[in-house]
Design goal:
Shape: globular
Radius of gyration: 22 Å
Structural class: alpha+beta
Helix content: 25-40%
Number of helices: 10
Largest sheet: 6 strands, mixed
Order of helices and strands: HEEHHEEHEEEEEEHHHHHH
Distance between the termini: 60 Å
């Protein structure tokens, strides 16, 4: 059996979504039916999985743990031509900090918690438990590879893998968008009646916000859709009585950004939920 395919099957059995790489660390190109996303593709998904095409199209999104797919005739040519195996870290709930030179490694040793490391051609991969938004050039010679990105498999590495630290998440966080638009989104007239919140007690609101945070935090796929539905539920329950505050909204945005959503995605999801509810 092809050596790369054997490696891929072993990784897939361990729950790591994999795909073949061509020379130059490039994924297999889209077939004619999938060229320019003519098939619809899956460019915005947050978990691994192919489109309906049986071939390994769409780069990182082709990564799979299904041995039948990996060994199918449609993938046979790709494995014959493969120069390496790649995996989708986000699909395995992992994050790779790609350190591309000695200066970047020295920075990581000063700044980041120790974790499993894998030597690369020019530097090291530091691998953490937990997924997040991917980003290139977060600092000189440092890339983040997790959701919607692939990393080359270079062996199991050494050391104990630790949880994804806030110091790594912070590398992709740009200057936060003002929360003020969210404040306008939840400012609404008090419902007619005795002028009090219909829920009568702040405990109901606090429990609702905590449950919303948990729902976002525990999302393992379709994160963007989960964030939108959660915002919709919170606004539906609490958005018309005036009880939401900047602090409540900031908690929801923080939970969403910890799952890889950018500030703009959060603001857009909140605005879309407002519009859907006629607020």
């Amino acid at each position: 059996m092809n050596t790369h395919l054997t490696t891929a099957l072993n990784l897939a059995a361990a729950g790591v979504p994999v795909l073949p790489l061509r020379a130059g660390k490039r994924p297999v190109g889209n077939c004619p039916d999938c060229a320019a996303n003519a098939c619809g593709g899956r460019p915005n998904m947050k978990v691994a999985g192919p489109c309906q095409c049986p071939r390994p199209c769409h780069g990182w999104a082709a990564a799979t743990t299904n041995p039948a797919v990996l060994q199918s005739p449609a993938w046979a040519e790709a494995w014959r031509e493969a120069h390496a195996v790649a995996y989708h870290p986000g699909g395995a709930r992992l994050t790779v900090v790609d350190l591309d030179d000695a200066d970047a490694i020295a920075w990581a040793r000063r700044t980041l918690p120790a974790t499993r490391t894998v030597p690369t051609t020019r530097g090291e991969h530091w691998i953490y438990l937990g997924s997040m938004q991917s980003a290139n050039n977060v600092r000189p010679s440092v890339d983040i590879k997790s959701c919607m990105q692939y990393a080359r498999w270079l062996g199991p590495g050494t050391g104990t893998m630790t949880g994804l630290p806030d110091a790594v998440r912070a590398l992709v966080v740009k200057e936060p968008s003002p929360v003020r638009p969210a404040q306008r989104a939840v400012t609404a007239p008090v419902p007619a009646g005795d002028g009090e919140c219909r829920h009568r007690t702040p405990t109901y609101l606090e429990r609702g916000i905590a449950m919303a945070e948990q729902r976002i935090t525990e999302a393992s796929s379709a994160v963007h859709a989960t964030v939108y539905r959660t915002f919709l539920a919170v606004l539906s329950a609490h958005g018309r009585c005036g009880c939401l505050t900047d602090t409540h909204v900031a908690r929801l945005f923080t939970a969403a950004q910890a799952k890889g959503e950018g500030p703009r995605h959060c603001t857009d999801a909140w605005a879309n939920a407002r519009t859907a509810l006629g607020m």
